[in-house]
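Team,

Forwarding the record for the chain on the shared tracking sheet. I've put the sequence and predicted structure together so nobody has to dig through attachments.
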Amino acid sequence: MDLATTNVRLIDLQEVTRITSLRKSALYELIKAGELRPAKLGRKTVFSEAEIHDWVRRRLAERIS
């Protein structure tokens, strides 16, 4: 992803829980396993909204195949 030409929307952990319907503890496990990649902005942990939606789409695709 070329960040210089892409409009990146960052979302917080609460928004990720809403999008994925997962609890914080499950998200922390996914982060630890390297499946989700947060970024730190000061004391705030944020995620790329596009990456979260891509992750959800991959999980749904795995279910179909």
